[in-house]
């Protein structure tokens, strides 16, 4: 559900959605309400590593809003939990990062 909602809503500019809905008077949906729904879905889904969080065509599948688990293999012998790293660099250490 989350991915479908996100794809549809992301295709609309927030101001256009609000204008088309009469700012929630003609159609009871606003960009703010959809944002609240998105955050609620992700909050409920956060850190879900077991159970049946998402429906799929074959019934229910384990996982979170993105239908992935930390142990899912995303590259040859590399689980999702080990496939991404975030590096934070300071401008004082790397002058190339300074604003030009």
Describe this structure in words.
The protein is of the alpha+beta class and 100 residues long. 31% of the residues lie in helices and 11% in strands. The protein is built from 3 helices and 4 strands, in the order H-H-H-E-E-E-E. The chain has helices spanning 2-10, 14-20, 31-45, and strands at 54-56, 59-61, 73-75, 78-79. It has a two-stranded antiparallel ribbon. Strand 1 (54-56) and strand 2 (59-61) form a beta hairpin. The longest helix is centred in the middle third of the chain and has 15 residues, at 31-45. It is flat, with a radius of gyration of 19 Å. Residues 51-59 have low confidence and may be disordered.
Tell me the fraction of residues in β-strands, as a range: 5-15%
Helix amount: 25-40%
What is the rounded Rg?
19 Å
Number of helices: 3
* Largest sheet, spatial ordering of strands: 1-2
Stretches where pLDDT is under 50 for at least 5 consecutive residues are: 51-59
Number of strands: 4
Mean pLDDT: 77
Distance between the termini: 43 Å
Entry keywords:
alpha+beta; 100 residues; two-stranded antiparallel sheet
Task: Give the arrangement of secondary structure elements.
Layout: H1 2-10, H2 14-20, H3 31-45, E1 54-56, E2 59-61, E3 73-75, E4 78-79
Antiparallel strand pairs: 1-2, 3-4
How do you describe this structure in short?
31% of the residues lie in helices and 11% in strands. It is an alpha+beta fold. The radius of gyration is 19 Å and the shape is flat.
């Amino acid at each position: 559900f989350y991915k479908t909602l996100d794809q549809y809503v992301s295709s609309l500019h927030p101001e256009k959605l609000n204008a088309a809905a009469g700012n929630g008077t003609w159609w009871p949906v606003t960009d703010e309400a959809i944002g609240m729904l998105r955050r609620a879905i992700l909050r409920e889904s956060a850190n879900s590593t077991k159970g049946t969080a998402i429906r799929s065509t074959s019934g229910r599948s384990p996982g979170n809003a993105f239908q992935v688990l930390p142990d899912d293999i995303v590259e040859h012998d590399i689980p999702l939990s080990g496939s991404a790293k975030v590096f934070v660099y300071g401008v004082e250490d790397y002058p190339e990062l300074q604003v030009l």
